[in-house]
Amino acid sequence: MPEIQCPVCGFVFSVSENCCAGLCSKCGKPFITASALELRRKNIEEAQARESGFVISGDKLLRCCCSGEEVDIPEGIVSIGDDVFSGRTDITSVNLPEGLKYIGDRAFLGCKGLETIIFPESLRRIGKYAFKDCTGLTSVHIPAGVNSVPRAAVGDSAFAGCKGLISISVSGSIRSFPNGVFDGCGEDVVVSWKNLRDDPRCCDVVMRRTQAGLCPFCGGEISGLFRRKCTICGEGE
Questions:
Q1: Which tens digits make up the pLDDT trace of 100-127?
Q2: 169-183 pLDDT, tens per residue?
Q3: Domains parsed from the chain with CATH numbers
Q4: Is it the case that residue 21 has pLDDT exceeding 80?
Q5: Rounded CA gap, 226 and 103, in Å?
Q6: Strand ranges (DSSP E) for the chain?
Q7: What number of helices (H) and strands (E) belong to the chain?
């Protein structure tokens, strides 16, 4: 038989398997079991899903139950949880609200029909494998806000396997990307850095997977496109 602890007097006592609530056998105060609370939480989530198509906790999107090619994420969402849209091959576009800061791991993994994603300027982090195998994506713009913690701002393999991706623009001070972030993208994928640094060495640069590139900070040749080290100023990995 499961045991519970009275939240008032702390007395521990046994209850039946099917018990959801009752009175403490010592102090007589009411209690509710953890299983009953979990059931209540699930019922609330299901009611949310039926009404809006989304399951939300606070400012975090936990689940999407809506159908259709275009998804409008509600205003006020700050974080998209892990795996929320994973495997949704029917989605072609997602409208992200301004104020969104975090996209969780595998959030859009395998959304092969996804063609358009515009990141808000408020975005701070893109999780691991977040857009992996989104083969319909052709271009991505990473806003300036994704730079506060450069090594964690874009997760490993975030855009790996996006075979249609040929244009990536970076408007921030990210100096390097983590392992495999663009592995398996189009052979002619172009990465461009926009000059937003107060640094006379920094200029707009364009780099291709198939050719040597220039350092975004001094213009010198670099070795390796996505994990790079400038041979002149030493910036990068």
A1: 999 999 999 999 999 989 999 999 999 9
A2: 887 666 667 767 888
A3: 67-237 (3.80.10.10)
A4: no
A5: 21
A6: 3-5, 12-14, 21-23, 30-32, 54-57, 60-64, 70-72, 79-80, 93-95, 102-103, 116-118, 125-126, 139-142, 167-170, 190-193, 205-208, 222-223, 229-230
A7: 2, 18
**Tens digits of residue pLDDT in 136-160:** 999 898 888 886 454 568 888 899 9
Both tokens assigned to 96: 């992200």
- The per-residue pLDDT of the chain, averaged, comes to 75
Q: Are 30 and 23 in contact (CB under 8 A)?
A: yes
Listing DSSP states for 7-67 in one string gives: TTT--EEE--TT--EEE-TTT--EEE-HHHHHHHHHHHHHHHHHHHSEEEETTEEEEE---
For residue 150, what is the DSSP state? H
